[in-house]
Write a structure and sequence with these properties.
Blueprint lengths: L2 H48 L5 H4 L1 H12 L4 H13 L7 E3 L4 H14 L19 E2 L2 E6 L2 E7 L4 H4 L7 E5 L2 E2 L10 H9 L6 E7 L5 E7 L1 E2 L17 E6 L3 E6 L4 H12 L7 E5 L10 H9 L8 E4 L2 E3 L14 E5 L6 H11 L4 E4 L9 E5 L5 E5 L1 E4 L15 E2 L4 H5 L4 H15 L1
Parallel strand pairs: 11-12, 12-15, 15-16, 16-20
Antiparallel strand pairs: 1-18, 2-9, 3-4, 5-6, 5-7, 7-8, 10-11, 13-14, 13-19, 17-18
Helix pairs in contact: 1-3, 3-4, 5-7, 8-9, 9-10
Length: 441
């Protein structure tokens, strides 16, 4: 081949590559624009359809038009989610949230939780020990966020974690090799994600990496044991369960904690109130880490833990307005009450706490709640994006909002790492001491 022919060949090859790149860029541009348009309409139509305001779409059509051009110019899912959230926030309802297909540590944590809690009918994707039944099981630890770490706040006696030597105050670093990164935000807190990761079926094993009280790394293997609970599912979150704990504290103070508002939990509260706690000098209801549940159950709980008729506020749904209140039951608790709250108290737990505070039926100890209490739905869209969208509006009895602002405690008590390392939940202890002193007056 002559030198001239080689030059011509290079020029032709270069031209072909330029044309190919141009066509690829054009196709990519078209793909991104079509995807952005699809996701935008999918999100907007879903929010409009489920919103309690039947005129939502018409009322906020100018907002949709304003942000449409910005959305169509996005060239990745992260940028698109940012524009969509700015659009929805401009309406003034921050409880409507769009998340792109999950990435990073949150994605791995969710994937692990979905896998460990999947129904047996879905276990063709992974191995399950022979004879393993589809019952909720855990390793026996409770966790909370403090000092930007996920810390063990309770080790259940006789659990596999207790037998492995796990102590209160230890920091959880990894679960089955998946790093715990509380700095990565999600619409539920990491304590809730970790609880799902630790859940599974009886007999399955979990590997934990933890930092002990001496700041040494511990690698521990524990087995999930059945906890007597039942599975339930909320939105797009992995299956979960609510555990129930009650005990008599020093000074004849009753203590009750459960992690979701379901009839089974309230029935257990009722049994304890009329039974072993019928003569206590004070009662603590722990709402920390409670993810909520059925919206009308707070009034049922209030009917058993207060002698007062307590208004639960106003709940506005599509085409209906509800004003639930409690009806004190025969045998209900009649003494002083403290409710514990924190940033991982959600939904019905916030409704209950706000109502008891406004009705002067309880003192609230802890830290401000999540501010995510409106009736809402979590869903995974066809595009892979995830959407939390409102289905109702809620006002506390005083007329104020809980959404976005949370419920502020009467007595602020931050969970203390040093106390945990001594085996003391200082928030719980502060409530106990308050009730003991109150009854001595």
């Amino acid at each position: 081949m002559t030198r001239t022919a080689k030059v011509v060949e290079r020029v032709l090859l270069g031209t072909m590559l330029t044309v190919a790149c141009s066509l690829f860029a054009e196709k990519a541009e078209q793909f991104y624009r079509q995807r952005a348009d699809k996701v935008l309409n999918e999100v907007w139509n879903t929010v409009s359809r489920l919103h309690y305001d039947q005129n939502f779409s018409t009322k906020y059509n100018n907002v949709f038009k304003k942000y449409k051009a910005h959305a169509l110019s996005c060239r990745n899912d992260k940028a698109l989610a940012l524009v969509l959230n700015n659009m929805l926030r401009s309406i003034g309802q921050s409880h409507v949230l769009v998340l792109p297909p999950v990435g990073g540590a949150v994605s791995k944590a969710l994937a692990a939780a979905y896998k460990s809690t999947a129904p047996l009918s879905s276990t063709h994707t992974h191995k399950v020990p022979s004879g393993c039944r589809d019952l909720p099981a855990d390793v026996g630890i409770r966790v909370a966020l403090s000092s930007k770490k996920i810390l063990v706040t309770r080790v259940r006696p006789d659990s596999s974690a207790a037998k492995a030597g796990v102590k209160m105050g230890w920091a959880l670093e990894e679960v089955n090799g998946i790093k715990i990164k509380p700095e990565q935000k999600y619409y539920v807190g990491w304590p809730i994600l970790v609880r799902s990761m630790l859940a599974g079926r009886p007999g399955t094993q979990v590997s934990l990496s933890m930092i002990d009280r001496g700041k040494s790394l511990r690698k521990i293997k524990v087995v999930r044991n059945a906890n007597g609970a039942s599975w339930f599912k909320l939105g797009v979150m992995p299956r979960s369960f609510s555990t129930y704990q009650s005990e008599l504290l020093k000074g004849n103070i009753g203590y009750i904690r459960f992690t979701a508002f379901f009839p089974e939990m309230i029935s257990k509260c009722k049994k304890d109130v009329v039974g072993k706690f019928s003569k206590v000098k004070g009662l603590v209801i722990d709402m920390r880490g409670n993810i909520g549940g059925m919206a009308l159950l707070p009034s049922w709980l209030a009917s058993w833990v207060s002698k007062k008729v307590v208004s639960m506020g106003t709940l506005k749904l599509k085409g209906a307005k509800l004003t639930p209140k409690s009806y004190p039951q025969n045998g209900c608790y009649k003494g002083p009450l403290v409710v514990l709250i924190d940033r991982n108290s959600y939904s019905s737990a916030e409704i209950f706490s706000a109502a008891m505070q406004d009705g002067k039926a309880a003192k609230l100890f802890g830290t401000r709640t999540s501010g995510k209490c409106l009736p809402s739905s979590f869903m995974r869209l066809k595009s892979g994006f995830r959407l939390q969208t409102i289905m109702g509006d809620y006002l506390r009895p005083s007329g104020g909002e809980v959404e976005r602002v949370g419920v502020k405690p009467d007595v602020k008590v931050q969970l203390n790492v040093e106390s945990l390392c001594k085996g003391i939940d200082n928030v719980k202890e502060a409530a106990r001491e308050y009730l003991v002193k109150l009854r001595k007056k």
